[in-house]
Amino acid sequence: MPSFDITSEFNQQEVINAIDQMNREIINRYDFKDTNTLVSFSNSTISLRSTTEERLNAADQVLREKFAKRNVSIKFLSNFNDEQTPSEAKREYTLKSGLDKEISKIIVKDLKEFSKKIQSSIQDQSIRVSSKKRDELQDAISYLKEKNYKVFLNYGNFRD
């Protein structure tokens, strides 16, 4: 019986590459001179720091551009915390892999509404989708891509 898995995972190497490119651009851009704008990545956390909130927002825009160029979904940048002090502005993004229970339930419900012939089950932080026909699974992937969930979805482990 054909099946595939739905997950939500980011490519850590592409994130590192995007941040490296961002650091190079910040060093070379005139509008970031003497602003002490820094970007770091460790343990699924991206930290942005700058002297003003305006420069922080500009650095955030550069980060989003680099993510887009490296084909990393900007939806991973939805979880962030801002912190403002008189001398510094900080923003921390927490990149999360895996589907949480509530989004998994929504996806399973949408798949059941889409077709009664498709079976789906939640397996920890992923969803296994199976059907008797491969075409039904491909239609399900197309259907899910049209829906706009607040997380990025990966489709993999396709088996016949």
Structure summarized in a few sentences:
With 160 residues, the protein is α+β, with helices and mostly antiparallel strands.
Number of helical elements: 4
N-to-C series of helices and strands: EHEEHEEHEEHE
| Model regions low in confidence, pLDDT < 50 over at least 5 residues | none
What CATH calls the topology of the largest domain is Alpha-Beta Plaits
Furnish the topology, listing elements before pairings.
Blueprint: E1 3-7, H1 12-28, E2 38-42, E3 45-50, H2 53-69, E4 80-84, E5 89-94, H3 101-114, E6 119-123, E7 126-130, H4 134-146, E8 154-159
Antiparallel strand pairs: 1-7, 1-8, 2-3, 3-5, 4-5, 6-7
Q: What does this entry look like structurally?
A:
The protein is of the alpha+beta class and 160 residues long. The protein folds into two domains: 3-8 and 98-159, Alpha-Beta Plaits, CATH 3.30.70; 12-94, YajQ-like, domain 2 (Alpha-Beta Plaits). It is 38% helix and 27% strand. It has helices at 12-28, 53-69, 101-114, 134-146, and strands spanning 3-7, 38-42, 45-50, 80-84, 89-94, 119-123, 126-130, 154-159. The protein has a four-stranded antiparallel β-sheet with strand order 6-7-1-8, with helices on one face. Strands 2-3-5-4 form a four-stranded antiparallel β-sheet, with helices on one face. Strand 6 and strand 7 form a beta hairpin. The N and C termini lie close together (6 Å). The mean pLDDT is 91.
Labels describing this entry:
160 residues; alpha+beta; Alpha-Beta Plaits; 2 domains; four-stranded antiparallel β-sheet; 4 helices; 8 strands; 38% helix; elongated
